Amino acid sequence: MTSNPRPMRLAVWGALAAIATGPTLAAGTDDVKALKSEIEALKKEVEELRAIVRKQVPPSSEAVAALRQEIARAQSEWKDVGSTKHFAGYADMGYTDAKNRRGLFDLARFNPAFHYQYQDLVLLDAELEIAVGENGSTETGLEFATIGLLAHDYAVVYAGKFNSGIGQFRQNLHPGWINRLPSTPVGFGHDQAAPVSEVGAGVRGAFPLGSMRATYDLWVGNGPRLELNPAGDEIEMIEASGATGDPDGKKVFGGRVALLPLPRLELGLSAATGKVAVVQGGVAEAARDYDVFGADAAYQWRGLDLRVEYVEQKIGDQAASVAPEGGRWKAWYLQAAYRLAPTQWEGVLRYGDFKTPHADQNQKQWALGLNYWFAPNLVGKMAYEFNKGLAGAPTDDNRWLLQAAYGF
Amino acid sequence: MIKLYAAALTMAALLAAAWPMGAARAEEKKLDPAAFARGAKAWADNCSRCHNVRDPKELRDDQWKPVVTHMRIRAGLTGQEARDILLFLQGSN
């Protein structure tokens, strides 16, 4: 007996189809139900939201105007406040390798500066100098602190401790990120030929003079102090940094005037005169003459920056003193810096000469430098100094200098 | 001592002259349409007399104000030049 395979095959296919489709149809029915319930829920939510929106009132034009006013007030809030302030300053780090001395990191200095202005009337301007000393101690000093009254467009009246207005270097060029070389020109350091600072009061400003512009600075202060040599019979140096003491009781009057015949050409003359006295055991001797003279010029043209400056301090004789002889401390320098556009490199050349009554202080110097400006206020400097001083003295040693300086 | 008193008298006279102009100064703020251009030129001419010019975007408007006043004193700018430079810096940052 032979069986017919066709009905059998149909039965098998039918069974398979039932297995395959049966559960799917069942699942599809459940999904539809779930979807329906979700749609219903969504419809309900939409109705609720519509009801909320219907209840809301559109903002009035007055409310919009008030909001806009509030935003404008917030944006210009700083203009309405009485006081504004800014924290500024600079820092420099350096390495020196001098002949007859091992190379060392000899500079880590931070000069924070504070500017507080009240309206358009007053500026408090102060700067500290914080530096690491040779023995690891931290030396802190007040570089300057003045209250300046903006009297009118052509005058600012100020009082406090201020950078000396004699010449340009001490008042404007000495910060590391401004000075084009890592070192100070010979004679322009502390207790050398150029006065550093003063405690007193003054008035300064600028005014148009035809097609030119003129600037002026007039001040009165306590004046410098005199330091004697170890034997106590000669004036060793002039301590011309500002102090609140004035042993001789006589003030020093000074001033500087400058003309700018071109926008980037400045020609300045400065002078000061007064009295100063040697102090012995806290008692001032008879006063003697103190006179200062300075001349400076600066010119910028494209990448070129040229500067020349002369300064001298003269102490008069005083026969009744333990150190009867006075003397003259004078210094000058000529500097040229050139920025190699469009690169960030800058070359610098400076010659300086410092003459005093003491051979061990005298110094002539050629300095050659190469700078790289990472930013307008961030510079890396390398320089070599050819120094000529008293044989065997540090002033005679040539040296390499490296410095990083940042102004902010 | 006489010189000292003379100096004090000069300063007092300058101060006395200050206040009326201080009042006028506030009124000038909105006026001059050429101030921005003048400020740009004064910024370029004066800042580079000592140091590289600083990008106006370095500081906010409120920070530039005391900085420019500091530089007015230090660099020998007139009040008008300082206001022009401030306007330029605040308009360019």
From TrEMBL, chain B:
Annotated InterPro entries: Cyt_c-like_dom_sf
Keyword Signal: yes
Keywords: Signal
Gene3D superfamilies: Cytochrome c-like domain (1.10.760.10)
Signal peptide: 1-26
Protein name: Cytochrome c
Membrane spanning stretches: none
Superkingdom of the organism of origin: Bacteria
GO MF entries: electron transfer activity; heme binding
The organism of origin for this protein: Pelomicrobium methylotrophicum
